[in-house]
Amino acid sequence: MKRRLLLLASLASPLVPVPARAQRRESLRNPLRLGVDQSLAESGLAGSLQRAFGRDTGIAVQLVPGPALPLLGALERGEIDATLTNTPAAEVKLADQGLAHDRRGIANSSFVIVGPAPGGKSGDPAGIAGGRDAALALQQIQAAALAAPGALQFVSAGDGSGAHVIEQSLWRAAKLAPAPPWYLSAERNKPLIAQARELSAYAVVERGSWAAQGGKPLALLVEGDPLLAVAVHYMRSFHLNHPAGKIFANWIAGRKGRRIVASQRGYVAPQR
Fold first, then answer.
1. CATH number of the domain that 59 lies in?
2. What 3-state DSSP class applies to 106?
3. 149 partner at 20 to 30 Å CA-CA among 10, 45, 134, 231?
4. What is the DSSP letter of 158?
5. Nearest CA-CA partner of 235 in 67, 81, 68
6. Which has the closest alpha carbon to 153: 161, 143, 164, 145?
7. Is there a domain that residue 7 lies in?
8. Are 137 and 222 in contact (CB under 8 A)?
9. Model-level pTM greater than 0.90?
10. What is the pLDDT along the chain (272 residues), one digit of tens a residue?
11. Domain contains 102
12. What gap in Å lies between CA 263 and CA 109, rounded to an integer?
């Protein structure tokens, strides 16, 4: 009789390992806090991964959007569990110092330079449309701004986001130090593309966020420069060990995660 009761109890139990059930319960009480660069939230990539992972595993992920560099600082201090960012140099530095770990390549993407559409009301005063040399385009933008004050504006993210980091590297490549009044810092808590559109200004933006939010009176003017290429990585905090962190790492870098990445405009899943 005792053996029969044990058998019946085992058959009635869910066919889910005990550790996995515990991880799901823990994640619902205390979701995996995932810091995501603002552009990866605006593009829809982070949200698509979050929802698909939740459907597939029942594990909760809480997105914490913000600029990449401050998020990596929060990861270092153990204030969030993991990050999804597009600032490879800063990520590698953190990993090499042993302050974060389990870095996984999630997607390949790029940044683009957008600005007033040729033929539109404001035209393309810097004449950069169709270019592939990003540093040269910035040189042309500054030259046009100085030659005709008030003719154009450039809006910078100015916040340590992936877009800001790549933009600053391009100004260094162009050997220029842009300055007001034509060079502006974007307002916080408002999408960079929306502000560039309102001002009919030039800007460096992430391709996925442009695909999701771009449009008139702006146009994509410069793309294809290797300096604009970027990879998106997932990384976990060294100080925290959320039970879902490793599961999400394996899922997001695996077949199902790669399928979600491939379905998002502006992103390519890395080869395995």
1. 3.40.190.10
2. strand
3. 134
4. -
5. 81
6. 145
7. no
8. yes
9. no
10. 444 333 333 333 344 454 556 655 655 578 999 999 999 999 999 999 999 999 999 999 999 999 999 999 999 999 999 999 999 999 999 999 999 999 999 999 999 999 999 987 878 999 999 999 999 999 999 999 999 999 999 999 999 999 999 999 999 999 999 999 999 999 988 899 999 999 999 999 999 999 999 999 999 999 999 999 999 999 999 999 999 999 999 999 999 999 999 999 999 998 77
11. yes
12. 13
Kindly give the residue spans of alpha helices, DSSP state H, lying in 78-133.
88-96
d(CA 158, CA 272): 35
Same structural domain, 93 and 122 = no
Cis status, amide bond into 217, omega within 30 of 0: yes
* Cα separation of the two ends of the chain: 53
CB 49 within 8 A of CB 82: no
Do β-strands 61-66 and 32-37 pair in parallel, antiparallel, or remain unpaired? parallel
One-letter amino acid at 9 equals A
Domain coverage including residue 76: 14-109+231-262
Domain match, 67 and 132 both: no
Residue closest to 124 by CA, chosen among 200, 53, 47 = 200
Q: Are 247 and 152 in contact (CB under 8 A)?
A: no
The number of angstroms, rounded, from the C-alpha of 73 to the middle of its chain's C-alpha atoms is 16
d(CA 39, CA 24): 28
